[in-house]
Design goal:
single chain; 389 residues; mainly alpha; 7 helices
Length: 389
């Protein structure tokens, strides 16, 4: 500055100070404009909070709808499975009832056939004995003893024959029943139901035949004894003896028929009782199974609904937490940005007037950092919030 006059030096100083003042004003305006634009971005971020909250609520509603749909589907599957099992056991029970009814009908038919055969045999024996008495009536005085023995034997033969017919019929029916055995389990509840039923029917047929065989010979004892009591009078009155013999034979026939009728009635009653007992057992088993299925359905549906309720509670808690996290995240980001802007303004205010180009670069770099921070908050908050639902 040598060679300048004081006036020139003073003028240069004034020009320099004016330039600094102008640069400082421009710098302040740029900093003010930068601060305002970033605060506007902060305000935009604050406006995003309701939108983010709406996203959380939409995600919550979708999650709750999904839980409700899954709950409904699970309940429907449980109900369908139980209904299927109920239909199967009902069908099994119906089949078992049909088998019991069919077995009862077959047993009744067999008993009727056996009784009819026994009655036919009795009638045939009675006719044979009566014809023998008539044919030998003229010879009874000389052959009285032989006649009584012959008549007694005929009576016993008739009873025995009737018993043998009953036994034969019973064995025949028993063989028919046993031929129907399948030798395996075929019932869910009772195992080899068909084989058990066939065995029971065969045993019943054999027992009926054996009972007839045992009882019919005994039934002949009384009339034979009555017949023998009339032997002395028969020697004096051949005709009277012959009549007494016929009456005795009629008595034997009547008693045998009554005994046969009583036995047949008892057998029918036993078959009816067995049928009623079997049907009652089937009904009880069905009721018990249906009750168990109903309890199983109730417990499983209750478990499904309880699980769904827990999931709904978790969704509600997570949604509330996410909403709070959004508000907190936005508030934290805005607060940090505001502090950074104040500190940035204070730093620029304390330092000397910055170079315009350097100031422009600092503002640009700082703006990029601030923008990235705000955008990161806007992007991370909704993703983190919805990820919890």
């Amino acid at each position: 500055m040598w060679g300048q006059s004081p006036q020139q030096h003073e003028a240069e100083v004034q020009d320099y100070e004016q330039g600094l003042a102008q640069d400082r004003g421009v710098a302040k305006e740029k900093v003010a404009a930068f601060t305002e634009s970033r605060r506007a971005r902060s305000t935009e971020l604050a406006a995003l909070a309701p939108q983010l909250t709406q996203q959380v609520q939409a995600a919550k509603a979708a999650a709750l709808a999904k839980i409700g749909s899954a709950e409904t589907s699970s309940v429907a599957r449980v109900q369908a499975a139980v209904q299927g099992a109920r239909s199967r056991i009902q069908a099994q029970a119906q089949t078992a009832r049909g088998q019991v009814t069919a077995g009862h009908s077959a047993a009744v038919a067999a008993m009727g056939s056996a009784a009819s055969g026994a009655r036919t045999a009795m009638d045939g024996g009675f006719r044979t004995a009566g014809e023998a008495v008539t044919g030998r009536q003229d010879n009874q005085i000389t052959k009285l003893g032989e006649l009584y023995g012959h008549t007694e034997q005929r009576i016993r033969d008739a009873a025995k024959h009737a018993g043998e017919l009953a036994v034969g019929e019973g064995k025949k029916r028993a063989a028919q029943y046993r031929s129907k055995m399948i030798h395996r389990d075929d019932n869910f509840w009772d195992g080899p139901l068909t084989d058990n039923r066939c065995k029971a029917q065969a045993n019943a047929a054999t027992a009926v035949g054996d009972a007839y065989k045992d009882e019919l010979p005994k039934a002949a004892d009384d009339p034979i004894a009555d017949m023998k009591k009339g032997k002395p009078d028969a020697e004096k009155a051949i005709g009277k003896v012959a009549d007494d013999v016929r009456k005795s034979l009629e008595t034997v026939l009547k008693q045998s028929q009554e005994g046969l009728a009583d036995g047949h009635k008892q057998s029918l009653q036993g078959a009816d009782d067995a049928k009623a007992g079997a049907l009652a057992s089937i009904g009880q088993a069905l009721s018990s199974a249906e009750g168990s299925l109903a309890q199983l359905q109730s417990s499983q549906i209750a478990a499904v609904r309880a699980q769904a309720a827990q999931q709904r509670q978790a969704i509600e808690r997570n949604a509330a937490g996410a909403t709070a996290a959004i508000g907190k995240g936005v508030a934290t980001a805005r607060g940090g940005l505001e502090r950074s802007l104040r500190e940035f303004g204070q730093i620029l205010g304390r330092d000397a007037v910055p170079d315009p180009e350097q100031l422009e670069e600092v503002l640009r770099d700082t703006g990029v950092q601030f923008d990235e921070r705000l955008e990161g908050v806007a992007e991370r908050n909704p993703k983190a919030a919805t990820a919890r639902l």
